[in-house]
Specification:
The chain is an all-alpha fold and 320 residues long. It is built from 12 helices and no strands. The termini are far apart. The chain has a single domain, classed as MetI-like (MetI-like fold).
Length: 320
């Protein structure tokens, strides 16, 4: 149109520049928060030691069987109950099987049970706590009463009963290893979600009244978007800490089941199963029980130290 003045390049690019600046500022804020969390975590020396010890154990059980290629079921009656030596670094059991090879293989299963059970507990607990804390009212009351009901159940006796009743049927359907693994993981995870649900509910009850959530609600954000985009990311700190403790609790639960003879079958050597097999030979072959017991102890202790470090690093009220 004649006589019109074209818009300047500066004016047309101003909104884009502001958007780019906001994105850059958000990126810098995220990087600074991560850097601050890492700095606070590093100041917890026991957490660093625990993280290093756990990393070494995970690396050993993942890469060890590829380096140390002794079969876990190789029987040598001439070498049974031998003390640690160059040929067998951690000794042998009553069938002459190499303890180190069986521990490297069994460590995968023990740690996998802990991680898988933790994921189930975190997922279920977060879902129940989020719905309860956001909805409130009757829904909150009903879900919390269900949570209290599960909390009142005796954990270990119920775990033993469920494993005893359904172990054989699942073995027939899924096989001895996968069936036992699935049953143990589901039962342990299904009995560990309640503390996570209470933590998430408490976070949601506090955060749903904050200004940024009210602003999202005022702009028309649906409830699911408010939960997933605004409230849940600000509740992950306690969930992460609870998740690390759930891993340790799941490892102890699986080891307890195997030690009582209700876990994995004898040909699947988890750390707890090795302890169960070694309990009758403590007088003349203590090494058979010392090494798997030490592995369980170090794994649980390291995970608890990591949880303490994460709790301090993710708590803004704690000065480090």
């Amino acid at each position: 149109m004649a006589g019109s003045i074209p818009a300047s390049r500066t004016a047309s690019s101003a909104p884009e520049a502001r958007a780019a600046g906001a994105a850059s500022a958000a990126s810098r804020t995220g990087d600074s928060l991560r850097a601050e969390t890492w700095r606070r975590f590093r100041r917890h020396q026991l957490a660093i030691v625990g993280a290093i010890a756990l990393a070494v154990m995970v690396l050993a059980v993942l890469a060890g069987p590829f380096v140390y290629r002794v079969p876990i079921d190789q029987i040598d009656f001439k070498a049974k109950l031998k003390s640690p030596s160059w040929a067998h670094p951690l000794g042998t059991d009553d069938l002459g099987q190499d303890v180190l090879a069986r521990m490297l293989y069994g460590g995968r299963i023990t740690l996998a049970v802990g991680v898988a059970a933790m994921l189930i507990a975190i997922s279920l607990g977060t879902a129940v706590g989020a719905v309860s804390g956001y909805m409130g009212g009757t829904v909150d009351h009903a879900l919390m009463r269900v949570t209290d009901l599960f909390l009142s159940l005796p954990g270990l006796p119920l775990l033993l009963l469920i494993i005893y009743l359904f172990r054989d049927s699942l073995k027939k359907v899924l096989g001895p290893e996968i069936g036992t693994f699935a049953l143990i993981v589901v039962v342990i995870g299904g009995l560990r979600w309640m503390p996570v649900a209470r933590l998430v509910r408490a976070q949601f009850l506090s955060l749903r009244e904050k200004e940024f959530v009210e602003a999202a609600r005022g702009l028309g954000a649906p409830p699911l978007r408010q939960i997933v985009r605004h409230i849940l990311p600000n509740s992950v700190g306690p969930v992460i800490v609870a998740g690390t403790l759930d891993v340790a609790a799941a490892i102890i639960a699986e080891s307890s089941l195997s030690f009582l003879g209700l876990g994995f079958p004898p040909d699947i050597p988890t750390w707890g199963r090795i302890l169960f097999d070694a309990k009758d030979n403590l007088d003349f072959a203590p090494h058979w029980a010392i090494f798997p017991g030490t592995a369980i102890f170090l794994a649980v202790l390291s995970i608890n130290y990591i949880g303490d470090g994460l709790r301090d690093a993710l708590d803004p009220r704690k000065v480090l």
